[in-house]
Amino acid sequence: MSVSDIQFPAGVESGPRQPLGIRDSISPEVMRKALGIPGMRSEHFVESLPFSLEDVTAGSETELQAGVLGRREYVDLPITIENSNYYVNVIKGAEAGDRSTAAVVNLESYLYGNQESVWDNSWVRFPLEKLSPFARDTLDSDLLANRGLPSAGNRPDADKFIIEEKGRELLRIPISYLLKLSLADVLGTHEDLPRPVESMGRRIMGCLLNDNTSPEVLSFYVVPLRTRNGLGRALANETATRFLLTQLLIMYANRAFSLTESGRHAMLYSSPHPPVRQKQLNDCISDSFYRELFMSPCLSGWDDGCAKQEYMKLCHQVMSRSRLNGVARLRDAGIITRNIVVLPTLSNISLANNGTHISLGSIKLSEAMKDKESGFTSAQEKHLGDLVIKIVEHFLPLFVRTYSAAPYRLDFCDFHPEKVLGFLPHELDYTHLRMIWRRWKKKAHLRVLGRPLTPFGIKSLDRFISRVFGVRGDVIPDFRLVDYLMTPLSTSRSPSLDGTRGNDVRLKKDLEDLGVFDTRMSLYTLYRLRECATRGFSGFEGRYYSLFESLTEDVAHATNLQTLVTALAYKYIFSEVLTHRHIPDEPFIESERRQIFFGSAIGVPTFFVKSNTRNLFLRKILDRTNGIRYSRRYPGYLRVYNRQYRLALLELIRSDAADIVEMFNLQSTVEDLRRRIEEGRHFSAEGRLTAGILQELGADSPLHSGADEFNLAAERFYRTTLRKRHIAEALKLLTASLRKMESANGCSQSCCRETFRHILKGRRPSDFIDTAREDLLSDNASLDVVVKTVQLVLVCIYRAAGIADRTLGRISDREDDSAPICRAGNW
Predict the structure, then answer these.
(1) Residue 721 carries which DSSP code?
(2) CB-based contacts of 238, cutoff 8 Å, min separation 6
(3) Which of 109, 159, 390, 641 is most buried when burial is the number of CB atoms within 10 A of its CB?
């Protein structure tokens, strides 16, 4: 049955196939004239739209997982815990009978039961004397209370980073800041560096952020997305090269700063979830002590690092409070029906998850915003942007599991709604929340003797039930999207996407009153508007990507699809097919479309939509969706299969965006998307990541192992096999780039040959990488090989940034080699 076969109430159309004649307060004709877009009958209409041909720029932000391998007595994290007043007080309190002995047992289990000797998100310590003069100057500058006001002196916590041990001064820093110091040391240790190496090295230091718990790395230059460069493949290449540089800088630190020599081996890799052992530690310490151990000091990327650090502490406090308030919402929704609940801890660990944000910018919109004579205003930018976001949100289920994923295992004992539903109570309407929870329990087969059952909260009893009745729990395709506050639901008085300026401020105030958010924080959204007045460009940031199995293929096709659906949204708007009134700004309707996204992340097969939904764009999609029928359980609702909905979106793209697909030459991306949907086990990111984890685990199915066993195997897979795979992809790109530069027409002969001769003394760069490849992949390369490879990577980045600047007409920007290029980028 399709939507066309269903009787809608009289006077309600089944979909907006023709313009409905509705006009918003800001006329599309006025905006079209301001942007120089011809009428939709013009043959140049599509190519003149924002985010169309030759108009798209891109950048990304990658969050990585850090850790230190080593024995407990050598690594900073366990040393810090054992030497802390908190640890002593817990022990003394237990001895006096004032505290439960369980706290001591759990802490000691964490400290002494680490079989793999991996300490997630630990800091590192090494002799201060190891730093070169330039690296030491960089450190001194970053330790200032305000880098823009040196006379103010050092940060009040500066002594936290330089400690004395056995008569030597040691530097103690998080790995996120170690990246910047490693790069500074490479630049400061070697004299007479070639200009491309030194200038690019200095410029990108500001892109290595010491912001959140995890290292965050911004794109090193603005990437123009052009069909001749493979569109999204250009951003994929930049992302892979950036990942390679971070790996080389960690290798350098391990060798140059004597970390490995002293029993500490720093690691950096892609992983979407907070580590299992860090979660276990979080469950047995206070929220304040957690922040002391893991909140970033924000040494790099901010003039006032202390203020930024306080902001990060605020975020942690708000997220923790929000999870606690979610319990009351679950009770109000009727999901929690007993007085027995497993309360979340006062410390929430969701800020330790890692994802990738891909931002797209429009040259047309940015130039119009900067031209005061254009007639295109910030109010119009906001009006258009919010409507684009509402349209694009309908397409987001296409991205979940297909291009990125975060497989995660939950045991039966974990299935307390107050724990596994994460932040969903603040993101969905009660009706959709109940529907998802019921379908999730059914998917996980939480039934005993034919009756639905969730754990009681008594671990011994729950384990007994699980073992005797074979209730194994579930595996979630992308648990990161559930375990993090992705996008809070609007309130009835303060819609977040109605196109009016200041709507985010009004919503934050409402959410603060409800105990969900804080007005001092940036509002989280799935697809965030980047306004020109505050970001320097006009565009959007996609914040729904978790872990990419391939840095080349997955990132390239995901960027292509994100560009495609964004351009399609503008086509709908300027064709006057969709306006704000077609997608009403009501919390229930907002939740109605977002339930599909979150259901995709959980892996539930169906969702339910009101048969008379007032979201006309959703009804347009459902009109193409097969397998729809009236729900027997929920009168007045339609039951829709998630997979069929995604296939309907694919058909919608093929029909409504056929001209955009042809313009961008994205036929291969559309076909790739079809394979990822129809043959997901073999082609989707979820399928390939799960297969890799199972191979690491030596199992045929995620349900054939316990939750901790599967999740720890996932961490090992990410830390070893997947990390090597990502490095191999990047080395392949590096070799291809070097070979192109070696040719006479690849770049200026004198510049390339002189630079390569200085670095390798006449040896061909591509031959050097071929010889060093295996040592780099196995982390056995010598310090000299690592340094030379870093320099070659910087030369390639210099060349790619130059090509990007020439494409964007920004050659003048490159005159100032000290300016961090990332600050003008699209993020």
Answers:
(1) I
(2) 60, 219, 220, 221, 223, 800
(3) 390
* Beta bridge mates, 704: none
Supply the pLDDT for residue 818: 36
Does residue 416 contact residue 454 with C-beta atoms inside 8 Å?
yes
Give the contacts of 322 (CB within 8 A, at least 6 positions apart).
348, 423, 426, 485, 515, 516, 517
Residue 157 has what pLDDT? 93
- Could you say which DSSP state residue 145 is in? S
- Residue 112 burial (10 A CB sphere; 0-12, 13-18, 19+): exposed
B/e letters for 272-291, b = 16+ CB within 10 Å, e = fewer, are bbbbbbbbebbebbebebbb
With tokens 């400290």, the residue in question is 111
Which residues does residue 170 pair with via DSSP β-bridges, in sequence order? 127, 163
Structure tokens at 379: 């109010």
What distance in Å separates the CA atoms of residue 359 and residue 527, rounded to the nearest whole number?
9
As a whole number of angstroms, the longest Cα–Cα distance in the chain is 85
What's the alpha-carbon Rg for the chain, to the nearest Å? 27
Q: What are phi and psi of 71, to 5 degrees?
A: -70, 150
Q: Which residue has the tokens 């040719």?
A: 743
Residue 691: which residues within 8 A CB-CB, separation 6 or more? none
- CA angle, residues 470, 474, 479, in degrees to nearest 5: 160
Give, in order, the Cα–Cα distances in Å from 587 to each of 382, 467, 484, 488.
20, 42, 20, 10
Q: Taking residues 538-545, what's their average pLDDT?
A: 97
What pLDDT digit, counting tens, does each position of 769-789 carry?
999 999 999 999 999 999 999
Count of Cβ atoms closer than 10 Å to residue 550 Cβ:
18
